[in-house]
């Protein structure tokens, strides 16, 4: 999905469409955690109980496929 940033005051926001929100189980009261490796931004629904598992998975994926992700981001 391609989307544009939207200005809200002095900030910029990413607008998520309804389909994506439904898939992720998010609504206007949801919290998400944002992560970046400097080139890619990931938004993960905040669930303190699952945070450790998700971070471990992200770390493992970066270790195993980080080079592939960086090459894709550069292309």
Topology:
Blueprint (H helix, E strand, L loop, with lengths): L4 E4 L2 E4 L3 H7 L7 E5 L4 E5 L2 H27 L1
In short:
About 45% of the residues lie in helices and about 25% in strands. It contains two helices and four strands; from the N terminus they run ββαββα. The protein has a two-stranded antiparallel ribbon.
Question: How would you characterize this protein structure?
Answer:
This protein is 45% helix and 24% strand. It has helices at residues 18-24, 48-74; strands spanning 5-8, 11-14, 32-36, 41-45. The strands form two sheets. It has a two-stranded antiparallel ribbon. Strands 3-4 form a two-stranded antiparallel sheet. The longest helix has 27 residues, at 48-74. 0% of the residues are buried. The model has no long low-confidence stretch (mean pLDDT 87).
Show unreliable segments: none
Give the N-terminus to C-terminus distance in angstroms: 17 Å
Instruction: Give the DSSP E fraction (strand runs of 2 or more residues).
Output: 15-25%
Number of helices: 2
Task: Looking at this protein, list some descriptive labels.
2 helices, two-stranded antiparallel ribbon, alpha+beta, 75 residues, single chain
């Amino acid at each position: 999905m391609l989307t544009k940033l939207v200005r809200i005051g002095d900030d910029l926001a990413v607008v998520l469409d309804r389909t994506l929100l439904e898939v992720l189980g998010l609504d206007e009261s949801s919290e998400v955690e944002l992560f970046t490796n400097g080139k890619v931004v990931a938004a993960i629904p905040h669930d303190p109980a699952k945070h450790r598992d998700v971070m471990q998975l992200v770390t493992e994926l970066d270790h195993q496929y980080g080079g592939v992700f960086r090459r894709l981001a550069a292309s």
